[in-house]
Specification:
Elements: H1 3-11, H2 14-35, H3 41-63, H4 70-93, H5 103-114, H6 118-158, H7 164-171, H8 174-188, E1 194-200, E2 207-213, H9 217-220, H10 222-232, H11 235-248, H12 252-257, H13 259-285, H14 293-303, H15 309-317, H16 322-350
Antiparallel strand pairs: 1-2
Helix pairs in contact: 2-11, 2-16, 3-6, 3-8, 3-10, 3-11, 4-5, 4-6, 5-13, 6-11, 6-14, 6-15, 13-14, 13-16, 14-16, 15-16
Subcellular location: Membrane
Pfam families: Mem_trans
Membrane topology: Multi-pass membrane protein
């Protein structure tokens, strides 16, 4: 299959185009609703709260309600290691992109470039395009993100030592709890007490009696799992509406004139994903930490997200280039919304390579 055929195959894929249209369309809808005051400021905050405390935790947890097999386990471990390695690499290299800036700006921009909105912006898109397996990989990948975001980023931005209260806050985060609980149950399911239940194959849609762990809710308690799925399905539309609503509340004038914010956003949304692609292509060709197409796509989309809200909050809380951080949040969100479809198409094309089969 030549490049033209591959491009045609991707751009005519109804599920991919549908996910892209749903993402951009819902963000624009949220923008319009807030701009016309049909969606109040308090409602935007409520959408974010429900997404972060209910929908996204259930989205992460549900993704682990799947059989454990050797291939998926190997992919998950590769994604976990990549999730740790990439942040070490970004933490070391990103400040060099801002070598001409003063130390304070360089430090802040280095942190902001390293950490994107992988949970609130990335996971809903991954779930919409790549389903439960993509969400599972995203949840595993995010383990490294949260470790460094609540440790290195906090210390760097605050100039303080990491305190127990910050570790407690990280560990009690509903998404973190759901991720580790789901991951733990997924890993031990073959050793746990088994029951016979009707299991539907996600690919063929055919149901058959199988032995599964008693806590595999998709098979043993389908009535509860259906509710969990319904609540998890809210993650994407609620997150996208909130993103659009937040954009409508930001001041465009000053941000659009800020050249540093544009330079930062280019680095965050374009350069960082390219680094992720180049590293995975090289290592997969060498047989080191190989990943399949869905794992690659998940990691690239997570890297192409706009600046992390937590990182911006650090900048504001500790008075570290707070205006610049706000401007980067606006510009990078706009740029990410434009370029996420480009990255989805790019990784679909890369998926045709033997490296990622």
């Amino acid at each position: 299959m030549n490049l033209v055929d591959s491009v045609v195959k991707v751009v005519t894929n109804a599920s991919i185009i549908g996910a892209i249209v749903a993402t951009i369309g819902t963000i624009l809808l949220g923008y319009w609703l807030r701009k016309t005051n049909r969606l109040k400021e308090g409602a935007v905050k409520s959408l974010t709260t429900v997404t972060m405390t209910v929908a996204l935790p259930l989205l992460a947890f549900n993704s682990f309600m799947t059989p454990l097999n050797q291939k998926t386990l190997q992919q998950g471990m590769s994604v976990l290691i990549w999730g740790l390695l990439i942040y070490i690499i970004l933490i070391v290299t990103m400040p060099w992109l801002y070598a001409k800036y003063g130390k304070d700006e360089r430090d802040v921009l280095g942190v902001l470039t390293s950490f994107g909105s992988t949970t609130f912006f990335g996971m809903p898109i991954v779930g919409a395009v790549y389903g439960a397996k993509g969400v599972m990989y995203a949840s595993i990948f995010n383990i490294g993100y949260r470790i460094f975001l609540y440790s290195y980023a906090y210390i760097k931005m605050s100039g303080q030592q990491l305190k127990g209260e910050h570790i407690k806050k990280m560990l009690l985060n509903p998404i973190v709890v759901a991720t580790f609980l789901g991951l733990f149950l997924w890993l031990i399911q073959n050793a746990a007490p088994q029951v016979t239940a009707m299991v539907t194959d996600s690919k063929t849609g055919q149901a058959s009696l199988q032995h599964v762990a008693f806590f595999r809710l998709d098979a043993t308690m389908p009535w509860l799992y259906s509710w969990f799925k319904m609540m998890a399905a809210l993650a994407s539309p609620l997150a996208w509406l909130a993103i659009g609503g937040n954009l409508a509340q930001m001041s465009f004038g000053e941000a659009l004139k800020n050249k540093t914010a544009w330079y930062y956003s280019f680095n965050k949304v374009i350069i960082v994903p390219i680094i992720m692609i180049v590293l995975t292509v090289i290592t997969s060709a060498m047989g080191i930490l190989p990943v399949d197409h869905i794992a690659l796509a998940t990691m690239v989309i997570m890297m192409a997200t706009p600046v992390a809200t937590v990182a911006v909050n650090y900048a504001m809380a500790f008075n570290r280039q707070s205006l610049l951080a706000s401007n980067t949040s606006l510009i990078s969100t706009i740029l990410a919304t434009i370029f996420i479809p480009v990255w989805i198409i790019a990784v679909q094309l890369l998926g045709d390579l033997p490296l990622f089969k």
